[in-house]
């Protein structure tokens, strides 16, 4: 018997060349091979006698070859023509350019042939059928009710993988891969790993595939949850932070000096921050809230609390635009107490060592030793790399309290898995006086009328408009050619809005160019900004009251919600027009949710159910790990794995096999 930990090269058929090719598929050990699961299954069709096979049907027959020969065409191609018999009837078979088949088929052997019945020389024949020699006492490997089709690479075919995996299944102790007790398997209604591995490669029915994938998905989620909770445990155990205190009078003083009345959600977040910072356990909290929900105020409160306790704070933003915005807002909020705030960017050579709050981009990580700070805020964590975030601790025992903020609406199931090492706070309320952005779906026949309405609104209200397009330049690829591009739209709308000033903004522009365009737009030097989704995060134009989005079906609901959050920021009546031109009723039905829902979390949950996590986070959200078996939408499985992961981390002595397996997995992956 083979061990699952052995190199895959230990198996027959796996030579040096094959071993290198398997590594391209991430297969190094026999366990890796067994976990290389099918991407789909191919139905070989009903097994019939030759006389029952009908033209156009996919069938499997068991027959003996009568004759198999090569035929050379005038164009130089080779056809392999065969004639097979099941004892009572005969049928032809035809293959193309596979001359070796004349040596494969022996008249003394019985074969399974599976394929579609067509016509050859006006007679029924199997066209390019799959084949497998029948071996008495053995189950077929390549032809069955559900033949596995595997992810492949150059030189490693699905057929070859089936042969090697079949050997591994027959000659490996599959139970050695088990790391959950029978009690746990029973509690969560999971298959044992030996049965799981067998059924994923040799399913007898659809439910077999479903249940085996469920166990593999549970394993994957459990590993993610344990890793996250273990990070949280190590964070708390190996580090300490400076304990801060605040009096009721100081707290009330902060609230009284705000130029607005904080929401209940903001007050709750500030109360949680007081508890976090009042401990020597380093705070590590995720603050999630829609655009305009007041996350920056909560961050400013943390910096205020740090100042009162004689400490410095750092506010990290992923872009210069967002850093500038935070600098202005936080600086204004904290100026009442003489708190010095400084903006740190790559263009600035020196920093003032006597400042209390530093606001900046990645450049701040290079200029300052973050562990020396009392309080650190990271805005849009997914845009900061792991190494950059690690600089907060840098091996220091005493580290700052950390608050992470995101405007990306994350469904709770995902947040608790992806950010399981962080405490979670959600700002559910919008500031008092905020208005909901009126959202309409504008179909093709109403486009011209909508342009006239936009002209009228700009003239009458003195407002400004965004026009968001999915691409920078016009695409010529297939159906994408119909999708609006920023450059194309700029040229077209310059003629439509010939009495107004237009500007263009996209991600390929230099930072200085972007800053100038935005500055001009904010100062009302332009009326309409044609742009890509670069405006989704960190751009504040108080006067903008119209958001027009081209090809909205290309965006997730959460992304559309964030885009429309760019207008109405000064409390004025504002509008979002979804320019919908495709003939797709499902897409239109999905967009309808946006017209009556104004909750980012609710819309993210809808998108998760309808389209999957890719639409919640978008292609730019590289922080979301890709699962091989699990789905972020499987809330019940996430809940179960979270429950078990928590118990494993809190009571590791009760799960020696599980801990041992995960440690070995972690070492192997690193």
Topology of helices and strands:
Elements: H1 16-24, H2 30-34, E1 40-42, E2 46-47, E3 58-72, E4 78-85, E5 90-96, H3 101-104, E6 111-120, E7 123-133, E8 147-149, H4 158-171, H5 182-187, H6 193-201, H7 206-238, H8 248-257, H9 264-277, E9 284-289, H10 295-308, E10 313-316, H11 320-334, E11 341-344, E12 357-360, H12 363-367, E13 375-379, H13 386-390, E14 401-406, H14 412-418, E15 423-427, E16 438-443, H15 447-461, E17 464-468, H16 486-496, E18 502-505, H17 511-522, E19 528-531, E20 544-550, H18 557-564, E21 575-580, H19 585-596, H20 600-610, H21 613-617, H22 635-650, H23 656-669
Parallel strand pairs: 2-3, 5-7, 9-14, 9-15, 10-12, 10-13, 11-12, 13-14, 16-21, 17-19, 17-20, 18-19, 20-21
Antiparallel strand pairs: 1-8, 3-4, 3-6, 4-5, 6-7
Helix pairs in contact: 6-7, 7-22, 9-10, 10-11, 14-22, 18-20
Characterise the protein shown here.
It is a single chain. The protein is of the alpha/beta class and 670 residues long. Among the domains are: 44-144, Nucleic acid-binding proteins (OB fold (Dihydrolipoamide Acetyltransferase, E2P), Beta Barrel), CATH 2.40.50; 248-427, P-loop containing nucleotide triphosphate hydrolases (Rossmann fold), CATH 3.40.50.300; 438-617, Rossmann fold, CATH 3.40.50.300. The protein contains 23 helices and 21 strands. The strands form four sheets. The protein has a seven-stranded parallel β-sheet with strand order 11-12-10-13-14-9-15. A hairpin with a 4-residue loop joins strand 4 and strand 5 (90-96). Helix 9 (264-277) packs parallel to helix 10. The longest helix has 33 residues, at 206-238. The chain is globular. Residues 475-482 and 619-623 have low confidence and may be disordered.
């Amino acid at each position: 018997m083979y061990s699952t930990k052995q190199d895959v090269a230990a198996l027959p058929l796996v030579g040096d060349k094959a071993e290198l090719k398997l590594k391209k598929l991430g297969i190094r050990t026999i366990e890796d091979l067994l976990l290389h699961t099918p991407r789909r299954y191919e139905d070989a069709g009903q097994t019939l006698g030759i006389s029952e096979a009908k033209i156009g049907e996919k069938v499997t027959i068991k027959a003996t070859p009568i004759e198999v020969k090569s035929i050379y065409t005038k164009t130089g191609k080779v056809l392999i023509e065969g004639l097979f018999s099941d004892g009572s009837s005969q049928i032809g078979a035809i293959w193309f350019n596979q001359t070796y088949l004349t040596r494969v088929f022996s008249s003394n052997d019985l074969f399974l042939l599976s394929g579609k019945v067509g016509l050859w020389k006006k007679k029924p024949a199997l066209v390019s059928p799959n084949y497998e020699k029948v071996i008495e006492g053995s189950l077929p490997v390549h032809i069955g009710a559900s033949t596995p089709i595997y992810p492949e690479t150059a030189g490693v075919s699905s057929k070859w993988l089936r042969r090697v995996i079949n050997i591994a299944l027959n000659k490996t102790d599959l139970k050695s891969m088990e790391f959950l007790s029978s009690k746990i398997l029973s509690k969560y209604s999971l298959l044992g790993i030996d049965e799981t591995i067998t059924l994923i490669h040799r399913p007898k029915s659809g439910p077999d595939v479903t249940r085996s994938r469920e166990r593999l998905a549970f394993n994957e989620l459990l590993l993610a949850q344990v890793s996250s909770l273990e990070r949280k445990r190590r964070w708390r155990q190996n580090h300490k932070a400076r304990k801060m205190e605040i009096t009721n009078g100081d707290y009330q003083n902060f609230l009284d000096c705000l130029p607005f009345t904080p929401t209940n959600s903001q007050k709750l977040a500030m109360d949680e921050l007081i508890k976090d910072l009042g401990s020597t356990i380093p705070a590590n909290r995720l603050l999630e809230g829609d655009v305009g929900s007041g996350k920056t105020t909560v961050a400013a409160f943390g910096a205020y609390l740090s100042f009162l306790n004689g400490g410095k704070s750092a506010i990290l933003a992923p872009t210069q635009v967002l850093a500038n915005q935070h600098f202005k807002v936080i600086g204004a909020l904290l100026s009442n107490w003489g708190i010095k705030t400084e903006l740190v960017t790559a263009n600035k050579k020196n920093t003032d060592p006597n400042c209390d709050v530093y606001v900046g981009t990645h450049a701040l990580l290079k200029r300052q030793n973050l562990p020396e700070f009392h309080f650190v805020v990271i805005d849009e964590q997914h845009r900061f790399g792991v190494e950059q975030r690690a600089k907060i601790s840098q091996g220091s025992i005493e580290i700052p309290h950390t608050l992470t903020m995101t405007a990306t609406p994350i469904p709770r199931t995902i947040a608790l898995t992806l950010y399981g090492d962080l405490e979670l706070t959600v700002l559910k309320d919008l500031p008092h006086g905020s208005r909901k952005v009126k959202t309409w779906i504008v179909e093709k026949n109403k486009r011209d009328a909508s342009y006239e309405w936009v002209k009228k609104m700009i003239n009458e209200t003195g407002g400004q408009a965004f026009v968001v397009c999915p691409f920078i330049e016009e695409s010529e690829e297939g159906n994408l050619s119909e999708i609006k591009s920023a450059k194309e739209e700029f040229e077209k709308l310059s003629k439509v809005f010939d009495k107004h000033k237009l500007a263009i903004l996209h991600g390929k522009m230099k930072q200085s160019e972007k800053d100038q365009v935005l500055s001009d737009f904010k100062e009302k030097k332009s009326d309409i900004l044609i742009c890509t989704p670069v405006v989704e995060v960190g751009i504040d134009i108080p006067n903008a009251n119209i958001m027009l989005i081209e090809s909205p079906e290309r965006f997730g609901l959460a992304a559309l919600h964030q885009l429309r959050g760019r207008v109405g920021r000064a409390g004025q009546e504002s509008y979002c027009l979804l320019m919908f031109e495709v003939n797709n009723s499902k897409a239109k039905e999905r967009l309808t949710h946006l017209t009556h829902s104004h909750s980012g979390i609710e819309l993210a949950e809808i998108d998760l159910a309808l389209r999957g996590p890719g639409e919640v986070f978008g292609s730019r959200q590289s922080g979301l790990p890709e699962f091989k078996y699990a789905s972020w939408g499987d809330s019940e499985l996430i809940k179960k794995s979270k429950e078990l992961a928590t118990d494993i981390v809190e009571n590791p002595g009760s799960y020696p096999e599980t801990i041992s397996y995960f440690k070995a997995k972690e070492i192997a992956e690193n």
